[in-house]
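HUMAN: You are asked to prepare a plain-text protein record giving the amino acid sequence and the backbone structure tokens, both parts labelled.

ASSISTANT:
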Amino acid sequence: MTEHQIVSILKEAEANISVKGLCHTYNMGNSALYTQRRKYSSMETS
């Protein structure tokens, strides 16, 4: 996944979409989402 895709997914998570649903939609594990959240939480999409 690109950084842009990851940041977009994290924005969806901020919009109160369930983590479980996002992980299923994007075929990633919960721990991967939380890891990416820590890494990219301060980034914005261009």
Notes: The radius of gyration is 10 Å. The chain has a mean pLDDT of 86.
